[in-house]
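Re: Re: C-alpha cell formats

Sure, here are both.
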Amino acid sequence: MLIAAVLMPVIIFWIFNSGFPAFGWAGRLVGGASPPNILLAISDDQSFPHAGAYGFRGINTPGFDRIAEEGILFNNAFSSAPGCSPSRASLLTGKYVWELEDAGSHASKFPVKFTTYTDILAGGGYHVGYTGKGWGPGNWNLSGRMQNPAGKNYSEIRDLTVPEHISEINYAANFESFLKTRKKNQPFCFWYGATEPHRRYSTGIGEKEGIRTEEISIPPFLPDVKEVREDMADYLYEIQHFDSHLVRMIEILEKSGELDNTVILVTSDNGMPFPRAKANLYEYGFHMPLAIRWGDRIKPGRVVDDLISLADIAPTLLQITGIVHPAEPESGLTMTGKSFYEILISPGSGLLEPERKYIYAGRERHSCSRWNNLSYPIRALRSHDYLYIKNFKPERWPAGAPVRYDENNNLVAGFHDIDDFMEDFVYTHRNDSLVKRYFDLAVSKRPLEEFFDIRKDPGCLNNLADLPEIQEILKKMRNDLHNRLIETGDPRVHGYGDIWETYERYHVMRRFPEPDWIK
C-alpha cells in the first residue's frame, strides 16, 4: 500500500503527459467539437487597474485593451496569493495556496501529486508549452516532475537589443516557434509568462520612452513625490513591454487564422512591487487585471463585476476545452476553484452570478525576511464591499525583520519582504515628515484582524476592525473565512500551522537576530 501511495502520483503524471488512451477521458472532447486553443498571458507583478482599458492614464496597453474590447473586461479578479510562486501554483491547479503544501510557499517545491490543467490538457492531446516565466521561482524537478508545471519551455530565441533589466527572451518569437512544432490541427495551450514588470527597473526609462509622470495616479499608500512618480513610470513602461509582445502574438494568431478559435486570457500573478502592495493582502497586492477574448463565443465589449479568483481559471479552461477528467481526491485532480464558463458565454454585463460572494486568499513565506526563515501567515476574505484580513502571527514584522546580519556579521537594514526596499525612496526618507506615515504603513506590526471598507478606502489605509458599528459584518466575515479554511484543510486552523516553517526554500537565505518574542 505504501509503495502504491508513493508511485500513484508519478503514474498519473506520466499518463497525463503521454495521453495514454486507457483513461477514457484522455483526448475525449464533449460533443465532438473542435477544441479551442488557449493563450494565457501573465505579467509579473502588475496591479489592477494598471491598463488602458480600466481608464488608467499614463499607460499604453493596446494588446490588453483589444482583448477587453473584443471580449470581457473583469473589474474584480483576484489572485490567491500576493506572491508569484504560490499564486501561479494556485492558477495551475485550481486550488487555494494552503491546499498545496510546499507549492503554497515561495521558492520551494511543486509536489507531483498536485495535477495542473496543463497536465490534463497535455493528456487530452493538446500541444502545451510556455515562454519566459512559468511556475516559479522554485525547484519543480525535486518533486519528480519532468518539466515546469506550465509545460515545455520555449525560451531560446533572444533579443539582445532590449534595455537593461528587460528580459532578453523574445516572447513573441518563441510563441511562433512553439506553434511550428505542433502537429497538424493539434490544439495548443501556451503560457506567455513575462518577467516584467518585476524589479529591477532601468531608472528613468519610463520618462525616456514618453510616459508622462504628471498623468500617473499614485496609490494612496505611497507619497506623491517626484521620485515615486518616476519609479511608477518605470514600472508602467515594463507593463507596456509585456503588452507589446501580446500585440505581436495576437497578430501571429490573426495571420495563421487561429485567432477566433483561441481563448486569450490576460492577467498578472500578484500586485505591483511597491511597499504595502506585493506580498500583502491589501487591494494592490492581490487585485488583478483580467481580460478574456474567445472569438464569437464571447459577446464583445462586456464589463463584468463578479468576484473571480485566479484559482477559477483552471476549472474554467477545462470546461471550455470539454476535456472530461476524473475527480478523485486521492489523485489530486479535484479543484476548489469554480468555473466561470457561464459568465463567459452570457450576453450580459455587470453582476451575473450573485452567489459569488467572496474571494479567498492567503500568504505564507514570501522572501527570506525573518529569523529562521519564518513566514508571515495571512488569510483574507474579500466581498464586493469589504476586505477582512487575519494576521495569524501579529508579533512578527509583516515586511520582514528591520535588521539582518551581513557577510561580515554586522547588523544592516532588513525589510526584505519589499522588493528593492533598500533603494526605495520611502526607506531612504523614512524619517522625513512627509514620508514617515507611508513607511510606518508598510513595515509596522499589524493587529490580529484588519477590516477595510473598499468602497471608501481602496488603498486600505483605515483599519475599521475596532469600530462598534461594523462588528456584526466583521463577525460574519470572520466566521465565513474560518469555516472555509476548515473545509479546505488549512493547517493554520487545523492545529499544525507550523508545518509551513518546514518547507525548504531554495533561493537566497539570510541571517537575522533572534526576535525578542522567541526569548
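Second one below.
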Amino acid sequence: MPVVLQLQDAHKRYGEQHLLDGASCALPDDQKVGLIGRNGAGKSTLCRVLLGDEELDSGEVVCSRKLRLGYLRQHDPFHEGETVLEFFQRDSGQPEWRCGEIAWQFQLPDAMLDHPVRELSGGWQTRVKLAALLLHDPNLLILDEPTNFLDLRTQMLLEEFLHGFRGGCLIVSHDRSFLKRTCSHTLELSRGQLTMFPGDVDVYLENLAERHEHDRRVNAATLAKRKQLQTFITKNRANANTASQARSKAKQLERLELIEVQGEEAGVRFSFPRVEPRQGTALRTDALAIGYPDLEVATDVQLEMEHGSRVGVVGDNGQGKTTFLRTVCGSLEPRGGNMKWGFGCQVGVYAQHVYTTLPEQQTVDDYLHYQAAPGTTIQQVKDVAGSFLFGGDMVEKQIRVLSGGERARLVLAGLLLEKHNVLVLDEPGNHLDVETVEALADALCRYEGTVIFTSHDRHFMHRVATAVVEVRDGRVASYPASYDDYVYRVGKELEAGLRAEHTVRNKPADSEDTAPRKVGGREERELQKKLKSLERKIAKLDEEKKSVQAQLLTVTETAPAQRLHEELTSFSNEIEQFEEQWLEVFNALEG
C-alpha cells in the first residue's frame, strides 16, 4: 500500500476561520477515500491544495515520484470544433483504437466520436472528461463533487469506472449513496483536523454516533464524580480532623477533565409548516405539450397527482425534467393541452438557479423577513434562521459573501417561512452537505402537503419519493413501479450495453482477447462452496463486531474504550478483506 500523496502539519486560514489547523493525511495508491465535512469546512480548499492550485500558510504536500495525479476538470477543456476523438488524442496522446476502447466503457457510441464535443449536452461532456481521465493512466484521482448534475445513468457508469479503477481516489460528494458504493474509507475534515476511518460513509456515521454517545457517558460520569468530590470538600475542609482528606479530594478534583466531543457540530433542524391534509387530485394534465418556442420537449402528457403524494421526476439529463417542473409551476407556458391545479393549491418553488439570483446586497435577516408570510413574528423568523445555522452574527451577513451551500440553506429557510401546501423542488440537495440533505429528507417525509421534485441523489430519492414520473424520449408518464425498481431497470440496461459485443476502432490484430472465461462443472461447485464459506465468515465477524459495539456503549473508562475501538477497526478490516474475496469469487462464477 504505497503512499503517493501526503499532507503534513497543514495550516490554512481565511480571516478568522481555520480550515486546516495542523492537519495531516496520507493517500495510498489503492484506497478509495470519501472526504466528509460540513459545508464551509474546507473540502474544496483541501482538494485545491493537494492539486497544487492553492498554497498552504504552513506545512507541506509531499508527492511520491510514482504519483500520476488525475482530476475531474469542472471547466471546459475542449477546443472550438474539436470532435470527441480529436480531444481524446490531443489530451492523452493515445492511439485511436485505445481511445475507442475507453470510450466504450462510458457507452460513447462510435458515431459520437466524430461529433463536435462542444455540441454535446453537459452529461455527455462529463462522460467524455471521465473517459479522458482513464486514458492518462493515473494512480490517484481527486474528484470534487463529481455527481453534481449527473443523471442516474452517468452516475452508474462513473461507479462502474471507479470499481474497475486500480488506483486510489479522493472523492468529495454530498451523495451518500454514491460514496457508499465507491469508497472503502472515509476521511473526516472537522474543525481543521483530518481523521481517517476504515469503512464506508454508513459505517463512519454509525461509529461517529457511537463515539459521541461514549464520550457523553464518560463526561456524565466525570460530572457526577466532580459533584461528589465537591460536596465532600465543602463539608470537611473546615474540620481539623478531615481537612487533610478534603485537600486530597481537591487534588483529585483538579485531575478530573471532561472529554471534548470531537466533530459534534451544530446540525440543521427544521420542519415545513404544518398544512391541512387534503384529498383528491392535486394536479391533472390533459394532452399537455411542454417545451420552448423553437423546441418541443414532450407531447400528450396525461398525468394525475394526488394530494399528499411525493412524486420523484426521473430521467436522463437533457430529456426535459426541469422543463416539466418549470411548466407545472407556471414559469414556462405550455405549448398545448391543459393543466389544472386542484382547488386551494398554494405552490412554493425551489429551483436550481435560485441561489445565483438572490439579492446580493440584502442581509440574511432582511431576506428572511421579506420572504416571510404576513403575520409571521420576529421570533418565528429568528427560530427558522437558527435552525438553518444562521445564528449570531451570521444573520447580519450580506448574501454576496455566502457560500453556495449557505445560499441553498437560505432559500430553503425562506421557503419554510411561506405558507404552501404544494412544493415543487428542482435538485434541492445540490450544494448541501450530507447531514443537511438527510435533515431535508426527514422534513419532507413528515410534510403532509404534496411534493413534486427531481434529484440525482439516489439515497434522497429512495427516502422521499412515494410515486415516480419518468421523462424519456419525448414522453412524460407515471412509472408503474417504485424508484428502486427504476434504478434496477436502468442498471440492467447499462449492463446489457456494457456486455454487448462491440468493435474497437483500428485495434491491432495481435491485441489479446480479454473476454471473460465461463466456468462450469467441478470448478463451479468449488467456487460455490468457497462463496458460502466466505459468507459464513463475514456473518460471524459481523456478529462479533455488533457485540463489541454494544460493549462500547456501556464502557466509561478511556483505556478499555480505546481497546474496543481498536477491535472494531480490526473487525472492519477483516470484513472488508473477506468481502473483496467474495466479490472476486462471485465475478468468477458470473464469468
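The CA atoms of residues 2 and 46 lie 21 Å apart. The mean pLDDT is 82.
- S.
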